[in-house]
Design brief:
Immunoglobulin-like; 3-stranded antiparallel β-sheet
């Protein structure tokens, strides 16, 4: 069985006083250690919240392996969410 990512959504709030640069990683494997198979770089101005979604994807992971969506850690962040949508294929 392979996981296939078709859509992802995220939100981020920068409560700091400087520009926050970070990345959203889709990993083929566990959080922090799985291979990065897709990356989206984001910059958020101070005091700003963003919400965004990216769909019509077809990113296939390895057989019998978890798929993880996560942010890099950044100071000043007060809230972040991720949502990964997809299906399982043989």
């Amino acid at each position: 069985m392979k996981h296939v990512a078709t859509c992802l959504a995220f939100s981020e709030e920068n409560a700091g006083t400087t520009l926050a640069n970070y990345a959203l990683f889709l990993r083929d494997g566990p959080s922090q250690t799985g291979t990065v198979i897709w990356q989206y770089d984001i910059a958020v101005e101070p005091g700003v919240s963003i919400e965004h979604s990216i769909c019509d994807l077809n990113i296939v992971g390895s057989a019998n392996t978890a798929m993880t969506l996560e942010f890099t850690s950044v100071g000043g962040v007060t809230g972040e969410t991720v949502n990964l949508v997809g299906y399982d294929a043989q």
